[in-house]
Design a protein that fits this description.
With 241 residues, the chain is mainly alpha-helical. It folds into two domains: 83 residues, Arc Repressor Mutant, subunit A; 132 residues, Up-down Bundle (Four Helix Bundle (Hemerythrin (Met), subunit A)). It contains eleven helices and three strands. The protein has a three-stranded antiparallel beta sheet. The radius of gyration is 18 Å and the shape is elongated.
Length: 241
């Protein structure tokens, strides 16, 4: 496994890959439910219910929740429990502003240093993203949409930059509105394609302009208000007791 795949593995679960243990299975189920907006912001993840659903010990559930907190998808509150992260509208605005700054800088470096082989790998990712969307595989499409940004960042060889961006991408992705009109996708492969074409031509300024436009479109589709009450079992696709 190459460096990029290793670093992306935790943040972006791989579609179709066997889940080796209960911890991984719980993580993947919750991650997909968040990304598909079956678990919207501020949904409470009750440890006892998760233990019952997966017939596992509380310490296993806590490890999963801590893992999701590290990625910015879950917030752990003292004496209250775990909740799906719910950035405020102000925080969302700040996060997209920071993403724009970081990705602008990343593109400046990548445009002048990326090899044809690296750009070909990005193009395959965009093609896979388009295919996932067109075949209706929403979880995979969302993961690949986020992964495009992370793989671009990986090409800077700046581990700190990638770490910061990974959390920002996770937190902004979970806020994107659930319903997207065709051709106006939350993290559009067409917009990624425009960024990639500019990179392939070595035009950093054009790539930065396309990325800024893309991030503005993403921000415009943020879903700011959480939905109040959710059945955790139903959201995770499990049968009622």
């Amino acid at each position: 496994m190459n460096k990029t795949a290793k670093q992306l593995h935790v943040a972006t679960p791989t579609a179709g890959k066997p889940q080796s243990n209960t911890e991984d299975r719980i993580y993947h189920d919750i991650y997909d439910a968040i990304m598909e907006h079956r678990l919207p912001p501020r949904t409470k993840l009750t440890e006892q219910v998760l233990c019952q659903i997966y017939d596992t010990a509380r310490h296993t559930v806590r490890k999963v929740l801590t893992r999701l907190e590290t990625e910015g998808l879950v917030e752990l509150e003292a004496n209250r429990g775990a909740f799906i992260a719910s950035p405020t509208s102000v925080e969302a605005k700040d996060m997209f502003e920071l993403r724009n700054i970081i990705e602008h800088a990343a593109l400046e470096k990548v445009a002048h240093s990326a090899t044809p082989k690296q750009l070909a790998a990005l193009r395959k990712g965009v093609d896979d993203e388009r295919a996932a969307y067109l075949t209706g595989d929403r979880p995979r499409w969302i993961r690949l949409s986020a992964q495009f940004h992370l793989e671009l960042a990986e090409l800077t060889d700046n581990v700190l930059l990638v770490g910061v961006l990974r959390k920002l991408v996770s937190r902004t992705t979970l806020l994107i509105a659930k319903v997207e009109a065709p051709g106006q996708n939350a993290c559009s492969f067409d917009e990624h394609e425009s960024v990639l074409l500019a990179l392939e031509s070595g035009d950093a300024a054009l790539a930065q302009s396309h990325m800024a436009h893309h991030l503005r479109n993403c921000e415009a589709r943020v879903q700011p208000e959480p939905t109040a009450n959710f059945d955790l079992r139903a959201a995770l696709g499990k049968p009622p007791e």
